[in-house]
Specification:
Layout (H helix, E strand, L loop, with lengths): L23 E11 L4 E10 L4 E9 L5 E10 L6 E3 L3 E9 L3 E13 L3 H4 L5 E13 L4 E2 L5 E14 L2 E18 L6 E9 L4 E8 L6 E7 L6 E2 L2 E8 L5 E9 L3 E10 L2 E4 L5 E4 L1 E8 L4 E11 L1
Antiparallel strand pairs: 1-2, 1-11, 2-3, 3-4, 4-7, 5-6, 6-7, 7-8, 8-10, 9-10, 10-11, 12-13, 12-22, 13-14, 14-15, 16-17, 17-18, 18-21, 19-20, 20-22, 21-22
């Protein structure tokens, strides 16, 4: 008997009723890569209603440019998560067509880092103005997890990114977005997440989750237009890091089918996550060029949650 993949409901795009747990979290995440301009970026809003705060992350990176980080981990819980405003930033979201089209804008005074590892060390950069106005348009099947309240959507991304007065126009470049709600403990587990877009139109997503005293958990999909979505039954990530704890390469093995994909890192956009009790999770994120063992190529984002 074939089990059909789960899909989110259009109503899931909005905020959800919080649970009582301290680390109950709701997040909206967005990324893009424009290989022609060698520019990648990611945006995330994370709500922690039981801690009366939110995280805002807007990061841009690529070879030959500093990593630009508009980060605030102490935003007061917003009355409206679709319109977040502080003295230093503005972040808005708009569901223009549920599960199909989503607009995000952000602006503020960010910090530029010539050494992206400085973000993992908690160092400050130099001030730079940044803004973006981007739309994510769905190009695949929205996929809901079975093991968590979360969904992932492959997209193309169009709009404008402005960094220090320089404008970058994006026209249907590859991207991903996701929405997650529930208890999320960065300091209780490690994982490697990926969202990859191959040149033959295949979209891959997977996460390799490592929880102490439990067997590894792998979740994700392989999908291409006109073909059934295939749920992954296993995701294994083997990563290497440099002396500054930035990723260099990662090899992903996806089941079924023994698909092997190797990521060569191009742009770094990490963050450092500090718990109230002082525990630190290093959270390097990067966009990469992808090659598969069967000769395909592509591009996408990866993240490595590492408790140190």
């Amino acid at each position: 008997m074939t089990t059909e993949p789960l899909q989110p409901s259009p109503s899931d795009e909005g905020p959800h009723t919080p649970g009582a747990e301290p680390l109950w979290n709701e997040s909206w995440y967005f990324d893009f890569v424009d290989p022609a301009q060698e520019l990648g970026g990611w945006v995330r809003l994370g709500l922690y209603p039981n801690e009366s705060r939110a995280w805002v992350n807007v990061l841009l990176c690529g070879p030959g440019m500093p990593t630009i980080a508009l980060n605030d981990f102490e935003v007061a819980s917003p009355a409206d998560p679709f319109d977040v405003r502080t003295a230093g930033l503005v972040l808005t979201q708009e569901v223009t067509a549920a599960l199909q089209r989503y607009r995000v804008t952000a602006r503020g005074t960010a910090q530029a880092h010539d050494d992206p590892a400085a973000l993992l060390r908690g160092e400050s950069g130099r001030a730079v103005e940044v803004s973006l106005d981007l739309t994510w348009e769905t190009v695949g099947v929205p996929y809901a997890y079975r093991v968590a309240t979360r969904y992932e959507i492959p997209c193309v991304v169009s709009g404008t990114v402005i960094v220090d007065g320089v404008t970058h126009e994006l026209n249907a470049v590859v991207g991903q977005r996701d929405h997650s709600w529930g208890v999320r403990d960065w300091w209780g587990m490690d994982w490697v997440w990926n969202a990859i877009h191959l040149d033959d139109g295949t979209h891959l997503h997977g996460v390799d989750i490592r929880i102490p005293d439990l067997p590894p958990i792998g979740v994700g999909y392989s999908q291409r237009a006109g073909e059934p979505l295939v749920e992954l039954t296993g995701v294994t990530a083997e990563a290497s890091f440099d002396a500054d704890d930035l990723p260099v390469t990662t090899t992903l093995t996806l089941q079924p089918g023994d698909m092997v994909a190797t990521a060569q890192i191009v742009g770094h956009a990490p963050v450092r996550l500090v718990a109230d009790d002082g525990r630190v999770a290093q959270f390097p994120r990067a966009w990469a060029k992808i090659t598969t063992a069967d000769g395909r190529s592509g591009i996408g984002w990866l993240e490595w949650n590492r408790n140190r």
